[in-house]
């Protein structure tokens, strides 16, 4: 069995303690910053730019390059020995391409700042039609002549400059907060929507109150006579429906129905009317009695409607007009459906033929 060496039992060395920071440089040491001997250095003379250099357009910014390693430097030196210069993009003798002509054409550089401003104003006039929205030449000149003095103002009194800027920032923030609170829309609170699983709540219908019976008129004394009640109205028994003797009789003779009584039939819902004891039964043919009983018409009402229909037929022959079902409905004073049944039955037996009415024309 091999023994462990003595060096494996020795603990590793302790790490070096971290460097301590100066408490005076900590941002929590004081609430106000110290501005003693804290001024911005002036710009050196070699870094200052002349006015002519400021007028020229600035060159494009080159991308940051990483420092090359020794291996990359050696590769670049080897490549430079193989090829001393880059290959030509275009041959000098190629037709249509000049060797001294720039690739993107001549670049027109403005001779002065005034010419550049004039071009910009002219381009704005082509886009914006309103002259009031185009800045004047004096505004451009003021902007060009503007020289930043932030560094000079800060170097005069750094603490006073800090107080001024801090006051301006707090004032601006308070104005923005007040303006935002005034223009903020006020939303109305709405009730939450009921859950989908809950059944719809139906409103109870109000109970209908029964109408009260109208009060009777109270008389002043007992001597006044009580009003007599009005007689009950009897439906279907007025003079116009039953007084067939007052109407002219243009009906065809009953003898024309001999052997042709099957046409005087009609379909009607309800029980047939009993006309066995009707006083005007003898005025009708037995087939007409069955038709009147089916339509639930008394013999007098049937005779009245029959005479009105054939009176209208004679009037239609006088003016040379066809006699239709609607004419029979307008002539009778009974239900229009019953009048239509009468017209259909009379038409089936041929009672509307003109030869039955020539004697009345």
UniProtKB/TrEMBL annotation:
It comes from the Eukaryota. Residues 20-41 have a biased composition (Polar residues). Residues 204-216 have a biased composition (Basic residues). It holds the Pfam family SWIRM. One of its GO terms (biological process) is regulation of transcription by RNA polymerase II. Residues 264-361 form the SWIRM domain. One of its GO terms (cellular component) is Rpd3L-Expanded complex. Coiled coil: none annotated. Residues 69-79 have a biased composition (Basic and acidic residues). This is SWIRM domain-containing protein. It comes from Helicocarpus griseus UAMH5409.
């Amino acid at each position: 069995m091999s023994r462990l060496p003595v060096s494996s039992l020795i603990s590793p060395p302790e790490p070096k303690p971290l460097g301590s920071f100066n408490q005076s440089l900590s941002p929590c040491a004081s609430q106000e910053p110290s501005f003693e001997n804290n001024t911005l250095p002036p710009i050196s003379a070699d870094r200052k730019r002349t006015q002519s250099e400021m007028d020229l357009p600035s060159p494009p910014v080159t991308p940051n390059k990483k420092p090359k390693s020794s291996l990359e430097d050696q590769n670049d030196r080897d490549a430079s020995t193989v090829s001393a210069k880059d290959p030509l993009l275009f041959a000098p003798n190629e037709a249509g391409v000049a060797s001294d002509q720039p690739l993107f054409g001549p670049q027109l550089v403005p001779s002065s700042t005034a010419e550049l401003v004039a071009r910009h104003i002219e381009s704005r006039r082509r886009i914006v039609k309103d002259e009031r929205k185009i800045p004047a030449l004096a505004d451009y000149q003021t902007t060009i002549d503007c020289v930043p003095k932030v560094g000079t103002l800060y170097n005069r009194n750094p603490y006073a400059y800090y107080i001024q800027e801090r006051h301006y920032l707090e004032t601006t923030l308070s104005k923005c907060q007040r303006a935002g609170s005034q223009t903020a829309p006020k939303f109305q609170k709405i009730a939450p929507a009921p859950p989908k699983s809950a059944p719809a709540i139906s409103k109870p219908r109000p109970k209908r109150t029964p109408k009260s019976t109208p009060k009777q008129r109270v008389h002043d004394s007992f001597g006044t006579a009580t009003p007599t009640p009005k007689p009950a109205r009897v439906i279907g028994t007025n003079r116009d429906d039953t007084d067939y003797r007052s109407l002219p009789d243009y009906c065809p003779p009953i003898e024309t129905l001999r052997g042709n009584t099957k046409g005087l039939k009609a379909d009607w819902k309800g029980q047939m009317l009993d006309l066995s004891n009707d006083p005007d039964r003898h005025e009708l043919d037995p087939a007409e009695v069955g038709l009147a009983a089916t339509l639930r018409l008394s013999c007098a009402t049937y005779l009245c409607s029959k005479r009105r229909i054939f009176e209208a037929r004679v009037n239609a022959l006088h003016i040379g007009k066809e006699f239709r079902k609607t004419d029979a409905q307008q002539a009778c004073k009974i239900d229009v459906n019953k009048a239509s049944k009468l017209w259909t039955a009379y038409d089936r037996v041929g009672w509307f033929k003109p030869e039955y009415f020539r004697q009345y024309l």
